[in-house]
Every structure is written in structure tokens, then in C-alpha cells.
Amino acid sequence: MNMNWYKFSAPSAFYPLAGKLIPWFWALAALFGTVGLWLGLVVAPIDFQQGEGYRIIFVHVGASWMSMFIYVVMAFWAAIGLAFNTRLSGMMTAALAPTGALFTFLALWTGAFWGKPMWGAWWVWDARLTSELILLFLYIGFIALTRAIDDPRRADKAGAVLALVGVINIPIIYFSVKWWNTLHQGASVSLSKGSSMAALMLWAMLLCALAMWMYTIAVSLIRVRGIILERERHTEWVKALLLQNAAAKPMIAPIAQREAK
Question: Is residue 149 part of a domain?
């Protein structure tokens, strides 16, 4: 039996689906994160060049990957929203932005902690570091722009344009170590050349990255559910949902009745 996935583009259909998926992604995030950090921080051996300091890569690399990946996903949703004028697209873009900003900040912060003992400086105006900093400004700019506009539909369109323009920064970040002479080391993992890391270290890093991916999905789904309720609060299905929840939780009954009026 074929499932009509297009129906989930409606907020009323996507809201309950997201609620069912969230616990699964939380569980996967906890599982992958626990195993990955245990392998990376406890089991993996000391690096012969960097010593114990290399272990920061188990957080830094995944955060760096997610900072770029989330922005690409935001640009995808932005393009869908502009092309098909779907309400859910703007909500998803808005839900992803804070988590993308968090991972970008985490990538810069952990990079600084790694750079101090390795390079002798917390920060250098390296091509990759600078382009990653620009990515953080793009996330912050997107959040500030969309929240400064009162009309959600206009805010979605303005944010979508910024997301699509800013996505050009992603290949600059990725290829910066190849295009310019930078201090930042090249990729340790490549689809064409394989991995230069020991298998145990690679598995630990990949599991930590998967944990961040699962975390991103879970948090974004929670956030988009909140956005859906806020924007759709005057629709009949949200009013019915609030009254249904009020029946199960009497303490929120006054709030539900006020919103349903």
C-alpha cells in the first residue's frame, strides 16, 4: 500500500507525526552519543602526535559537519517554500536555525580549544575559521530577520531569500583548505580516499556525529511543533487539540478554553 507523503506537508498532519517520531530520535541520539563518547574518550588510544588533546575531534568534527548540513537543509526547505508556497517549509526552516547556530558556535569553540595547544593561538584568521564564523553570522542574521517581521508569511519569504543566498558559503567552508593555504588540516575522512584515521577513532567520531544528527532532528521536531501551535492557534484543529489535552490535564483547561474562544 502506497502512503501519500504529500499530505504531511499540511501542519495539521505533520504535527502528530512529529510527536510520534521525537521519542525515537531522542533514543537514537542517547544511544549513539553514549557509545561514541565512550569509544572516543575511554577506549580510543592516545594520539602519538597530539596526545590527549586530539579527543576534542569527537565533538568538533561532528559539530562542524552539522553546522554546514543544517544550513543546506534550511536552504532546501527555503527553496521548497518559495517554489510551492507551503506553510510547513517556513516553519521547518525557522525550527532548524537555532540548532544550526548552536553547532556552529560549538564548532568554533571546540576549534579554539584545539587550536591553542596545537597552533599556539585561540584564533587565527584562517580561511576555514573565517568562513565558519560567517556561517554563524548567517544563522544569527536569519533568526534576527525572521523575528523582526511580524507577519509570519513575509518573515518566511525574507528568511528563505537569506538562506538561499547564504548557502554559497557552505562550499567555501568545505573547500577552503584546498583553495587556500590555511593552517587548518585537511579532511581525515574522504569518500574518494577513505579515512586516514584508525578504525576505532573513526567509529567513535562517526557515532558522535550520528548522535548530533539524531539530536538535531528531535529538537527541530519539538521546536516546529511549537511553531505550528503558535501559528495555527486560531484553526479549528488546534482548538480541538487544546481542549482534548485540557480534558487529560485539568490544570491547563483554563488556557485551552481561552484559546478556543
Answer: yes
pTM: 0.87
**What is the C-alpha separation between 94 and 160, in angstroms, rounded?**
10
Residue 18 and residue 225 in contact, taking contact as beta carbons nearer than 8 Å: yes
Per residue in 245-261, pLDDT (tens digit) is 776 665 444 444 454 45
In a domain, 240, yes or no: no
For residue 190, the SS3 value is strand
CA separation for the pair 135, 57 (Å, rounded): 20
- 8-state DSSP, 116: H
Of the candidates 17, 8, 76, 6, the one whose C-alpha atom is nearest the C-alpha of residue 221 is 17
Question: Residue 104 falls within a domain, yes or no?
Answer: yes
pLDDT digits (tens, 9 = 90+) for 3-24: 566 778 889 999 999 999 999 9
Name, in order, each residue with C-beta under 8 angstroms of 53's C-beta and a sequence gap of 6 or more.
47, 114, 117, 118
Domain count, the chain: 1
